[in-house]
Amino acid sequence: MKVIELKMTVTDSNDRDAETLRRELGERGIFLINLMSAPGSGKTTLISRTITDLAGRAKIAVMEADIASDVDAERISALGAESIQVHTDGMCHMDAGMTRAGLDGMDFSGGEIVFLENVGNLICPAEFDTGAHRNVMILSVPEGDDKPLKYPLMFQTSDALVITKMDAAPYFDFDLGAVIRRAKALNPGIRIFPVSAKTGEGMSEWESYILSEREDG
Amino acid sequence: MKVIELKMTVTDSNDRDAETLRRELGERGIFLINLMSAPGSGKTTLISRTITDLAGRAKIAVMEADIASDVDAERISALGAESIQVHTDGMCHMDAGMTRAGLDGMDFSGGEIVFLENVGNLICPAEFDTGAHRNVMILSVPEGDDKPLKYPLMFQTSDALVITKMDAAPYFDFDLGAVIRRAKALNPGIRIFPVSAKTGEGMSEWESYILSEREDG
Predict the structure, then answer these.
(1) For A45, nearest residue in chain B (alpha carbons)
(2) Is B29 within 8 Å of B112 (Cβ atoms)?
(3) Residue A173 belongs to a domain
(4) Neighbours of A122 (CB within 10 A)
(5) How close is the nearest chain B Cα to the Cα of A198, in Å?
(6) pLDDT tens, position by position, for chain A (217 residues)?
(7) Strands B134-140 and B160-164, sheet pairing
């Protein structure tokens, strides 16, 4: 498991760089999914369960982006999956150049699904195209059902919303119907997957979505 | 309840502006506490319970900073407390000039404790001195005990750490001892208050801390 220290790249050309990266990855048979969420939403747990569930059906690799530490990449590496930890030099997002630099440090044989676990943050990551083929937002039940009201751009730029920690719903005031209604008001086409990586609830729908989106390219 | 749209101020002079604001507020008998956390950590719920518990013992006013929406300020306003909502023009933090602009929109009679509920984010807010007399970080149990490893600056710049949603601890793998150990390794003087605003657990210790810190100025 490697650790790479990144520097921010020039952002004027980020949208163009992202398009180029997306096309190149497609040509190499690599499908990149950008996962964005607040800190502590359970991204790494969701990825870990997805890797285990899809073992034998999909090769999954993971890029962990954080300000500091490599605890997440260690968890993924322990599952036997290709993983890399990148540090963002204090920045609260990944851009296309940073994503490319991280991917360059990974070993691929082709056909991989790569999860980019973006920095835990509901603001900055939504503003930068990483070059991913799909953007997926994670919202955990304990964060509350008002998040679409407070962080609209994140919901608008995501292709799918995974609602994690559904097993904890009985212990929190969380109105799933309100979240779905608010998310769809911002982004009518967004796909929504309520899941629990602990109990397995909803995981097969989420995993089928990933596999079918990869087919679509 | 007012809503103010802010623009980012010049940051070269932020540290100096923050010192000036802190001194001026002290002269007016206003004690400003900057609350920082990830989205959904329960800041507004903590503030609401604190206002109710300290009714008659302290005048509490609240500045809510968000990218969008005014749902938090509405909640505070419903308690009868002076409150203002500021929007940060897409920025993930408050600086001293923005804080001053928000305070200028509020009505004070003197002797207030003002909570600044900073933008939900564990990165950018730690980098900007708002002019507050104390910085307090909120970490909720569902976010996990690894946060000091991933967001060290936030723990280093905070005078106190409030650990919220302790009533949910039985449903999550959360090692309170590990959080305390990791936080104190980064910041030996940090005060730590495990609380539940739902059950009231730990609230009196937190509230006594606020009142005594105001005395210290």
Answers:
(1) B144
(2) yes
(3) no
(4) 29
(5) 10
(6) 466 776 655 567 899 999 999 999 999 999 999 999 999 999 999 999 999 999 999 999 999 999 888 899 999 999 999 999 999 888 888 999 999 999 999 998 888 999 999 999 999 899 999 999 999 999 999 999 999 999 999 999 999 999 999 999 999 999 999 999 999 999 999 999 999 999 999 999 999 999 999 998 7
(7) parallel
Phi, psi (degrees; rounded to nearest 5) at B16: -70, -45
Closest approach of A152 to chain B, Cα-based (Å): 8
Is A106 in contact with A84 (CB distance < 8 Å)? yes
- Across the interface, which of B69, B71, B143 has its CB nearest the CB of A39? B143
CA B165, CA A54: separation in Å to the nearest integer? 34
- Asked if A165 has any chain B CB less than 8 Å from its own CB, the reply is yes
Bridge partners, residue B3, by sequence: B85
What CATH number has the domain bearing residue B92? 3.40.50.300
Residue B167 lies in a domain: no
Distances (CA, A) of B48 to B76, B77, B81: 6, 10, 9
Q: Radius of gyration (Cα) for chain A, nearest Å?
A: 16
Mark yes or no for CB contact B168/A142 under 8 Å. Answer: yes
A185 and chain B: CB distance < 8 Å anywhere? no
Distance CA A93, CA A118 (A): 7
A95 touches chain B (CB under 8 A): no
Q: B94, B128 in Cβ contact below 8 A?
A: yes
- Angle, CA of A77, A101 and A109, to the nearest 5°: 55
Residue A42 in domain: yes
Chain A residue numbers touching B149 (CB-CB < 8 A) = 68-69, 71
Nearest-CB residue to B69 (from A121, A150, A153): A150
Q: Is residue B116 part of a domain?
A: yes
